[in-house]
């Protein structure tokens, strides 16, 4: 409590002094800040990383390689599904965008899922999982998939029973975990694997980290506009979003003008039952936005340009010119990084998408 | 034993579990865990503060992204989970206070998360509008002209914009209402501005409204977020935890004290046990020493071996090796079959194993076999040693060598049997005279069974024939420890009397006290009878000797008389009167010769020619003579057995015997009667020989004469064989008849048995030995031959009786022989030396001067091997070398001899082929 008060007082003092520096970046006053490390000493070229709303991705450290490998196997293992024909990878193509291009993925027996599938890449950076954030962790997210009638439609004992028949799993689990094959351990392995799915080394991250030539001037303009238009009030951080909830339609009712409501459209209200949470969704991270069309929770928006325009109108409450949209889209295209040393690219991903079930 | 052990295991288990319980109780506080908890709590508080700091930074626009809040909230959540887990792990029965605080903390965190989310969303919207406000203001004012109305509007918008900024920074409530007024004024007053400006103004106002809407909200949120009670909750949790923890520490210290106390108690108990153990060990050592001595003693005394449960020998002492002749290395690891003798059946060993495997002690005597094959006998005790479960784990066999005892037992048994079956009856009494034991001979002798007499005194046998003084003397003798020996008459069970000879010996114990008496008794009734018979036969022998001696001399004289009567007879051959006298004299002399012959016949040594005779034939030849001897009133019946064996006897003597017996029978039946003559083959058994001491067992021809005469009393029977004993009138018998019969039978190693009953008759049985050869020869005729054989050879006649010498000289000269005479052996040898032509030595046997006829014959034939010898003798009692006797006895002419007899024998000897 004392510590708390001390901080409050100290910050209030700072508040008065730095009153006029709020909107103008460049100050080094908070260089001592705890949450940043390493890059503080780097020479500042055109921007100070400390005050950039978007932060570069870093590969998750201290992951158990064995668990990552095991998680990868499980991620591709169709035995997790009741019919043994569906794995995590059936919807989340790792060779592509970490999701797919259907506005609603076809689940078990061809049933359409309720919302558009989010990419698994960088999902560990989300503060909560799913569009409505009903899972607090990756582990919980897996539970929902397992229990979902349109997805794995099974339970853990069945999965464990199947996996225990596999000598390889018994051996590997036995090596990595004290208690062998359990639901916790399966979830942990998959979650650990998912934590490794960070798309580092994007052109924009290189730019952030000091390579001024990493992106073009247009793209720099796009970034500038992205900030200036206020996009970064939500789409900030390493994942360019994904760490807060926001009502869809701040300035205007998004749904009434478009189509009939579905249950999924209620968003977080479905989770909390709180009226304030109606139409509230987790802000998606935009790291792979260039690769993950169609857009929005219902997959109703097919292009980035449209999405940018819709966002400006409903969320930011302002007009945006086509020119600015183009700049912003150009900027957004610099965000996808690499996975397993390979740059994730739209062309590459699209080839795959046609073959998806 | 196992129950005992079980008790101790239980006790140890109890102590251990008590110790463990106390130890676990003291360990219920884990300082490391406690430190972790405290550390985690301070971390939590720190992270919470950092989170708050980030919230402030975000609020102030110093932090343009939310990642740190997300990360730190994850950290908080993680720490909270960890703390909860650790606290719950620390002690499963976490108190309500702690649990409540945990729940409250969790709620506070959830609240904070919710607020944080709202804060982030609100802050995003607020920031968007705030950032856009100057631009939006510009966009409106850019479309305005510089006319008065527009200037006022521009000013109003700028003021609004400025006031919004100030409001945002100061949170003045006054400004809030002023701003709302301005907004409503703008909305209503500036409807007629250009469309573009109006549109922009609407946008501006929308953003202003947003700012106004969320400004208070975010301030409140801010306030709530910063004051949300996570840290206080954590402090309260810490407080509750510490109370709990201190309680536990207190408990732990109590338990620690208890643990110390219990440990000290245990140590004391262990010390006590050790003390007792030490004492037990000392007594165990003593016991072991004692045991070793006992084992040593046992090893000295007995044959000891130990086997394991399988029967394999694990120990054998020196005595075992000694008796079995195996050395120790040959025994260890083997089983006892190594000494198996094969004497006992398999069932014997099975029974033994059954006994010892069931844990019982086995005792018995085993005959074993040593390495060298000899058998030895051991008295064996096998003791199984049991483990706690009652299963034998080893067997100790203790043996005693009883081979010698066994042998002694055998000897004793033999001796006891000997005693029991001894011919003499044996009675053992105690010192008071109570019978302890009698042998078989006693029961046979007395008719009392053993059970009858044991426990009684020998007085049951009292016959009353001995007076009390006799018994007093007996007791006096034996009670003083001396041996009593004597004869007495006792009574059998059936009341009859018998004589016995008794030797009573006292038996002394080691102190010299009399414990028992042993009486050895012999039935002497029979012996007395035997002695009587012997005495009688000795008398007969003496009489025989006497009469034989008289007869010999008498014979010589009769020989002379008869010789010269013969000469006289030839002299007075033509003269009637002297011839008749001579003949009468000769008759008388001949009767005398008969008498002497009968006398000599009584004597055993009468030499006679033996020949093999069929008695049946002899009896048939004698039948007329027998008939003539008997009176017509006597009826004779013959029962002659077929296939009768032959006897080797003198036929003449046999005729005499028959006639004697027939005449006796006739005399016994003056009024007539029946006479039965019967022959049969008879084999006399050893038993019979035993009962009749003058008889020998073997094959005999039995001749039985049975009459129905007056019979004889015992007195008569006693003397019947004595010479000159007669029951007949003086002129009727010589008293030599039965003596002759006796002599006859004895001479031929036969046996005579007389059974007589006064008034009923007499039966005589004569047993003559069966002849080895069975060729009976007919009785040679002894009729005088007119032409006596003669010769011209030189004959040396030796006789100490000069008259007989001369008579022999006359006879031989008459027969044409050249004669030399000698009166003794010396002369005879001298003559033999001087005359080479002497062919025959005719010598008397009985001669004075040391050298008898046999001796002379031997010396003479040694000097002159071709010399023939004929000896003559009446009777001799002198001992003669059996070799010589055997050599010369066939050439023996019995005295008195007649001329014809002599002539024949001389010629026979001279004509004999030299067989030597």
Please give a structural write-up.
The complex is a heterodimer of chains A (357) and B (916). By secondary structure, chain A is mostly helical. Helices cover 34% and strands 3% of the residues of chain A. The radius of gyration of chain A is 22 Å and the shape is globular. The termini of chain A are far apart. With 916 residues, chain B is an alpha+beta fold. In chain B, 57% of the residues lie in helices and 17% in strands. The longest helix of chain B has 72 residues. About 1% of the residues of chain B have low confidence. The chains are: A mainly alpha (357), B alpha+beta (916). At the A-B interface, helix 1 and strand 1 of A face helix 2, helix 3, helix 4, helix 7 and helix 8 of B.
In brief, what are we looking at here?
The complex is a heterodimer of chains A (357) and B (916). With 357 residues, chain A is mainly α.
Percent of sequence in beta strands of chain B: 15-25%
Number of strands of chain B: 22
Helix content percent band of chain A: 25-40%
Largest interface: A-B, 44 and 45 residues
The H/E string of chain A reads HHHHHHHHEHEHHEEH
Structure classification of chain B: alpha+beta
Backbone shape of chain B: rod-shaped
**Mean of residue pLDDT values of chain A:** 84
**Main sheet characteristics of chain A:** 2 strands, antiparallel
Query: How would you name the oligomeric state of the polypeptide chains in this document?
Result: heterodimer
Distance between the termini of chain A: 57 Å
Furnish the topology, listing elements before pairings.
The complex is a heterodimer of chains A (357) and B (916).
Chain A (H helix, E strand, L loop, with lengths): L1 H16 L47 H11 L62 H10 L8 H9 L2 H10 L6 H13 L7 H6 L8 H12 L16 E3 L21 H4 L7 E3 L21 H13 L5 H11 L5 E2 L2 E2 L2 H8 L4
Helix pairs in contact in A: 2-6, 3-6, 8-11, 10-11
Chain B lengths: L1 H25 L4 H29 L7 H24 L5 H47 L5 H23 L2 H17 L5 H33 L2 H72 L1 E6 L4 E4 L1 H7 L3 H4 L14 H12 L4 E8 L5 E12 L5 E10 L1 H19 L3 E6 L4 E4 L1 H7 L3 H4 L14 H12 L4 E8 L5 E12 L5 E10 L1 H47 L4 H27 L8 E3 L1 H15 L4 E7 L6 E3 L1 H18 L4 E12 L1 H6 L6 E10 L6 H6 L17 H11 L3 E7 L3 E9 L24 E5 L3 H13 L3 E5 L2 H10 L3 E7 L8 H11 L4 E6 L8 H7 L3 E3 L4 H13 L5
Parallel strand pairs in B: 12-14, 18-19, 18-20, 20-21, 21-22
Antiparallel strand pairs in B: 1-2, 1-5, 3-4, 4-5, 6-7, 6-10, 8-9, 9-10, 11-13, 14-15, 15-17, 16-17
């Amino acid at each position: 409590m004392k510590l708390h008060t001390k901080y409050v007082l100290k910050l209030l003092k700072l508040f008065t002094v730095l009153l006029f520096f709020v909107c103008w970046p460049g100050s080094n006053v908070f260089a001592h800040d705890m949450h940043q490390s390493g890059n503080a000493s780097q020479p500042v070229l055109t921007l100070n990383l400390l005050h950039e709303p978007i932060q570069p991705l870093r590969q998750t450290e201290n992951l158990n390689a064995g668990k990552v490998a095991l998680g990868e196997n499980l991620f591709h293992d169709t035995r997790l599904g009741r019919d043994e024909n569906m794995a995590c990878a059936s919807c989340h193509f790792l060779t592509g965008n970490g999701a797919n291009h259907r506005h609603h993925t076809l689940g078990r027996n061809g049933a359409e899922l309720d919302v558009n599938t989010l990419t698994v890449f960088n999902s560990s950076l989300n503060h909560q999982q799913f569009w409505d954030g009903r899972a607090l962790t990756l582990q919980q997210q897996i539970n929902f998939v397992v229990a979902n009638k349109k997805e794995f439609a099974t339970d853990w004992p069945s999965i464990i029973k199947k996996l225990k028949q596999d000598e390889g799993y018994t051996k590997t689990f036995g090596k990595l975990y004290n208690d062998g094959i359990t639901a916790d351990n399966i979830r942990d392995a998959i979650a650990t694997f998912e934590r490794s799915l960070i798309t580092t080394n994007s052109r924009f991250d290189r730019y952030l980290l000091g390579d001024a030539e990493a992106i073009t001037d247009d793209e720099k303009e796009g970034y500038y506009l992205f900030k200036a238009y206020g996009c970064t009030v939500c789409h900030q951080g390493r994942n360019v979003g994904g760490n807060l909830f926001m009502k869809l339609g701040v300035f205007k009712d998004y749904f009434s003008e478009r189509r009939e409501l579905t249950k999924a459209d209620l968003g977080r209200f479905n989770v909390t039952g709180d009226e304030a949470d109606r139409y509230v969704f987790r802000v998606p991270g935009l790291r792979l936005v260039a690769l993950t069309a169609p857009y929005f929770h219902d997959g109703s928006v097919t292009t980035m340009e449209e999405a940018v325009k819709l966002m400006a109108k409903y969320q930011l409450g302002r007009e945006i010119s086509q020119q600015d949209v183009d700049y912003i889209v150009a900027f957004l295209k610099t965000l996808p990084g690499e996975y397993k040393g390979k740059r994730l690219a739209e062309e590459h991903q699209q080839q795959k998408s046609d073959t998806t079930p | 034993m196992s129950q005992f052990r079980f008790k101790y295991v239980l006790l140890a288990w109890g102590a251990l579990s008590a110790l463990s319980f106390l130890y676990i109780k003291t360990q219920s506080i884990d300082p490391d865990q406690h430190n972790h908890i405290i550390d985690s709590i301070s971390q939590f508080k720190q992270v919470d503060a950092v989170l708050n700091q980030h919230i402030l930074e975000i609020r102030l626009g110093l932090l343009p992204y939310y990642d740190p809040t997300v990360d730190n909230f994850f950290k908080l959540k993680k720490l909270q989970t960890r703390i909860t887990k650790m606290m719950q792990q620390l002690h499963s029965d976490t108190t309500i206070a702690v649990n409540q605080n945990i729940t409250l903390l969790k709620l506070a965190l959830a609240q904070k998360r919710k607020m944080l989310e709202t804060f982030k969303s609100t802050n995003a919207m607020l920031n968007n509008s705030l950032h856009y406000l100057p631009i939006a203001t510009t966009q409106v004012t850019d479309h305005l002209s510089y006319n008065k109305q527009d200037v006022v509007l521009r000013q109003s918008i700028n003021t609004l914009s400025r006031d919004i900024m100030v409001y945002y920074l100061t949170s003045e409530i006054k400004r809030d209402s002023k701003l709302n007024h301005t907004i409503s004024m703008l909305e209503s007053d500036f409807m007629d501005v250009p469309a573009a400006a109006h549109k922009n103004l609407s946008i501006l106002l929308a953003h202003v409204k947003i700012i106004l809407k969320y400004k208070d909200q975010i301030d409140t949120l801010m306030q709530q977020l910063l004051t949300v009670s996570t840290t206080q909750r954590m402090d309260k949790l810490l407080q509750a935890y510490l109370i709990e923890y201190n309680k536990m520490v207190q408990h732990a210290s109590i338990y620690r004290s208890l643990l110390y106390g219990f440990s000290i108690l245990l140590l004391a108990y262990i010390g006590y046990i050790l003390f007792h153990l030490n004492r037990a060990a000392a007594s165990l050592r003593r016991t072991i020493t004692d045991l070793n001595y006992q084992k040593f003693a046992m090893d000295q005394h007995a044959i000891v071996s130990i086997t394991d449960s399988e029967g394999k020998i694990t120990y054998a002492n020196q005595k075992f090796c000694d008796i079995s002749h195996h050395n120790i290395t040959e025994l260890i690891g083997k089983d006892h079959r190594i000494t198996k003798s094969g004497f006992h059946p398999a069932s014997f060993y099975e029974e033994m194993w059954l006994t010892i495997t069931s844990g019982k002690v086995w005792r018995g005597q085993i005959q074993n076999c040593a390495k060298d094959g000899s058998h030895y006998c051991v008295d064996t005790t096998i003791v199984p040693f049991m483990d706690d479960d009652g299963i034998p784990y080893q067997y100790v066999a203790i043996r005693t060598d009883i081979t010698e005892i066994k042998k002694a037992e055998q000897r004793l048994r033999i001796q006891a049997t000997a005693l029991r079956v001894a011919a003499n009856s044996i009675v053992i009494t105690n010192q008071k005279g109570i019978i302890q034991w009698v042998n078989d001979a006693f029961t046979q002798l007395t008719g009392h069974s053993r059970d009858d007499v044991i426990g009684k005194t020998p007085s049951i046998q009292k016959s009353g024939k001995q007076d009390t003084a006799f018994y007093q003397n007996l007791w006096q003798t034996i009670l003083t420890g001396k041996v009593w020996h004597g004869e007495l008459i006792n009574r059998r069970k059936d009341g009859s009397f018998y004589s016995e000879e008794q030797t009573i010996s006292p038996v002394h114990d080691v102190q010299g006290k009399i414990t028992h008496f042993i009486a050895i008794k012999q039935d002497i009734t029979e012996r007395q009878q035997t002695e009587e018979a012997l005495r009688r036969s000795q008398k007969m022998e003496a009489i025989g000797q006497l009469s034989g001696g008289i007869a010999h001399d008498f014979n010589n004289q009769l020989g002379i008389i008869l010789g010269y009567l013969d000469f006289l007879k030839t002299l007075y051959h033509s003269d009637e009167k002297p011839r008749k006298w001579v003949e009468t004299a000769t008759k008388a002399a001949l009767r005398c010769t008969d008498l002497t012959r009968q006398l000599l016949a009584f004597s055993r040594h009468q030499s006679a020619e033996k020949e093999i005779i069929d008695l049946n034939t002899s009896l048939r030849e004698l039948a007329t003579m027998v008939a003539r001897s008997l009176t017509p009133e006597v009826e004779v019946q013959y029962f002659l057995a077929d296939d009768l064996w032959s006897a080797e006897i003198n036929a003449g003597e046999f005729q005499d015997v028959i006639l004697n017996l027939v005449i006796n029978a006739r005399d016994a039946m003056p009024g007539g009667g029946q006479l039965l003559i019967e022959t049969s083959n008879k084999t006399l058994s050893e038993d019979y020989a035993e009962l009749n001491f003058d008889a020998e067992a073997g094959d005999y021809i039995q001749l039985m004469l049975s009459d129905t005469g007056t019979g004889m009393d015992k007195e008569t029977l006693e003397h019947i064989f004595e010479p000159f004993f007669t029951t007949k009138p003086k002129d009727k018998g010589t008293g030599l008849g039965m003596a002759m019969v006796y002599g006859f039978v004895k001479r031929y190693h036969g046996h005579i048995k007389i059974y007589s009953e006064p008034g009923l008759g007499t039966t005589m049985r004569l047993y003559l030995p069966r002849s080895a050869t069975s060729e009976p020869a007919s009785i040679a005729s002894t009729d005088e031959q007119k032409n006596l054989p003669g010769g011209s050879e030189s004959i040396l006649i030796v006789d100490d009786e000069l008259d007989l010498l001369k008579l022999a000289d006359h006879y031989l000269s008459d027969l044409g022989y050249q004669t030399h005479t000698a009166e003794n052996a010396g002369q005879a040898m001298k003559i033999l030396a001087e005359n080479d032509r002497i062919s025959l030595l005719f010598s008397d046997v009985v001669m004075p001067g040391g050298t008898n006829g046999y001796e002379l014959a031997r010396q003479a034939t040694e000097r002159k091997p071709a010399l023939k010898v004929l000896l003559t003798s009446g009777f001799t009692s002198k001992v003669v070398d059996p070799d010589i006797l055997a050599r010369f006895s066939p050439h023996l002419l019995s005295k008195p001899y007649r001329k014809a007899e002599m002539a024949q024998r001389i010629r026979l000897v001279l004509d004999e082929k030299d067989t030597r």
